[in-house]
Amino acid sequence: MARPPAPTLPALDGRGWTLAADREEVRFELPTMRVLAHTLVYHDDALRERVREATGIDHTWRFFFATRLGFEPPLPPLTGTASVYGSVRSESRDAFVEDLRERGVGAIERGRTERARTETGDRVSLTRYRGRYRLEEDGGPLDVPIAGLLGVWTHDGDFRLAGGWYPEQSLASTLNGAPETDPNEFRNELIDLVRGTR
């Protein structure tokens, strides 16, 4: 089966991001077709190292992913992406929440959805999420508030998905000895990465 090519990403050099996965898979199945995905996943290994050195806790605190979808059989030329947009957005939201759960995030709540423009001028639907990552520490369990974001849109007739998560509060206020982190900076960078994905 023909897999979709990888999405094109904004420059990540010098930002501390490291490619963690490059995978191709059947993302989900609709009644009349299979949805194929090519996904790139990046982790902020620079932040992970800073926190590990300061606290001894080794964890991925931020991730970013981008996916390009393809369909088997191909979408009909006249109705195209519009005919499956609702299904793709719904299935993508479910898959994103499941991914967060697999990464150890609980108490996940979906927030508001808003519209924005990508750097290429496409309209992207951005859905916000909140949850809590539970760490087991010597003093007992510790919950770290997490914020997530998922973008869904079409570009040149193909679907794009992009998003990620980040600590919603400074890690210094949550973990003893952790460095100060800026959740606003994390959020803005994640939005920029989503908007810059093609």
Polypeptide structure, described:
There is one protein chain. With 198 residues, the chain is α+β, with helices and mostly antiparallel strands. Helix content is 22%, strand content 45%. It contains three helices and seven strands. It has helices at residues 45-55, 85-102, 183-196, and strands spanning 17-30, 33-44, 63-72, 105-117, 123-137, 140-155, 158-167. Strands 1-2-3-7-6-5-4 form a seven-stranded antiparallel sheet, with helices on both faces. A hairpin with a 2-residue loop joins strand 1 and strand 2 (33-44). The protein is elongated, with a radius of gyration of 18 Å. It starts with 16 loop residues before the first strand and ends with a helix.
Number of strands: 7
Instruction: Enumerate the strands of the largest sheet in spatial order, edge to edge or round the barrel.
Output: 1-2-3-7-6-5-4
- In terms of per-residue confidence, which ranges show pLDDT below 50 for 5 or more consecutive residues? none
How many helices does DSSP assign? Answer: 3
Q: Order of SSEs, N→C? A: EEHEHEEEEH
> In this structure, how is the largest beta sheet organized?
7 strands, antiparallel
- Give the helix proportion (percent range): 10-25%
Alpha carbon gyration radius: 18 Å
Distance between the termini: 23 Å
User: Strand portion, in percent?
Assistant: over 45%
Secondary-structure content class: alpha+beta
Shape call? elongated
Q: Write down the overall mean pLDDT.
A: 92
